[in-house]
Amino acid sequence: MTAVRQWWERRTLHARLAVLISGAVAAAVLSVAVAAWVAVAEIQHHRLRTALSTDAVAVAAAGPPVAAPERRNGDGRRGPRGWGPRRQILDSTGTVREGVTDPLPVTDLARRVATGGGGQTEEEIRVGDDTYLMVTVPVTGGGAVQVAIDQDGDEQTLAAFGLLLVVFSALGIAGAVFLGRVVARAGLAPVQRLTEAVEDVAVTMDFRQPVAVGAGGDDEVARLSASVNTMLAAVDTARRAQRALVADAGHELRTPLTSLRTNIELLVDVERHPEIAHRLSQHDRDKLLADLEAQIGELSKLTTELIELSREETTREAAEPVALADVVEAAISRVRIRAPRLTFRADLTTVTVPGRPGELERMLVNVLDNAAKWSPAGATVHTALTVDGDECLVTVADSGPGIDEADRPYVFDRFYRAATARSAPGSGLGLAIVAQTAAQHGGTVTTSGREPHGTVVTIRLPQLVPAVPTAGLS
């Protein structure tokens, strides 16, 4: 069985389809042939049995004959043995009447009928090398009539008919094989064209050129073609996004790297040429080293954000039920350490969401970091976790200057920085990471204004179980 499965798995789809079609048609041909042979044999046997029974009943009704049993042709004339039925009369003791030179065998069934022990019987008997079908009918007053006919003629007819069926079945199977190959080739032609089109895309790398196989149809090939086009469009979008990310990252990295290189070269020159060391005061040196430290930190943060942003949809963290309130508390604890000048307040509801806790925490840390960056000292950053139908909402409200309404549609784009924020530290990737993580968890993120000033970031995520209110956290 294993060898057959391995052989089958090595066949092409075209070969498998051809084999299945050929096998189905061949099985149908053989089934019809066998059914036809069985039906003809049964009809022939029934016809013969009915004729013998009618003949025997007629002889029995006419009374015991005085002549010996006759061998007659089908037309009633005397003829050679085997051409017509053979008849003989049994007396009430089951003995053959005198004068019969070539008697039929008297079986136990026939003797029982002749002696009044039963009604009409039918059986097959052997006479020499021949097989006869014999019917025994009781005679009124005692005795019985036996009528038998050689079945060789019927068997020869059935054999000839069977040979004819074999010939036509063989032709039918050969036609089935041919038909299977033709149908398989015709049925898989669109798939072959689709394969060639996809292979052409793989060679040319032109993902913008849609596959036109089956266009406008509604069959399986058309749906497959549409799915391939959707996949190609997604690949093209991903490739464009990758190129844009690389280009934007290169542009963003150029400025800190240039500044870093300039400062390092200045320090190297001072170390190599002591005669010019007096030109760089200790205050300037300390300021230069502080700038280097800040630039290295900015570069490190930018690199980390780029890695986060370039992560694939599937990460090494497995999705699991997550208590979102615990994740929010952990994120607040991390940001509170970095922003001790602010007050963080949280009103949380116990909610379970499907997700990856590490990614969710990083997302919330980015939102809280952004709020802390723009909030003045002594301000309060308010975080709330609420429920809206089958979704939960995480809102983070700061007391900063807010985001201009014209800039709000773009704040989640990579490297986007509003005009009022370009002088502030940051890369413009934090909120892009937030949007990507929310989307990967089946959610969305939006921004809105806060009165009298400030920004509210709202994250919507699907929840697993109904929410239960808990006490607020300060």
TrEMBL record:
Residues passing through the membrane, by range: 158-184
InterPro entries with a match to the protein in the record: HAMP_dom (IPR003660), HATPase_C_sf (IPR036890), HATPase_dom (IPR003594), His_kinase_dom (IPR005467), HisK_dim/P_dom (IPR003661), HisK_dim/P_sf (IPR036097), Sig_transdc_His_kin-like_C (IPR004358), TCS_sensor_his_kinase (IPR050428)
One term under GO cellular component: plasma membrane
Biased composition (Basic and acidic residues): 69-78
Pfam families reported in the protein's UniProt record: HAMP, HATPase_c, HisKA
Enzyme class: transferase
Enzymatic reactions: ATP + protein L-histidine = ADP + protein N-phospho-L-histidine
CDD domains named among the record's database cross-references: HAMP, HATPase, HisKA
Enzyme Commission no: 2.7.13.3
Recorded GO MF terms: phosphorelay sensor kinase activity
HAMP domain location: 185-240
Protein name: histidine kinase
Organism: Actinoplanes derwentensis
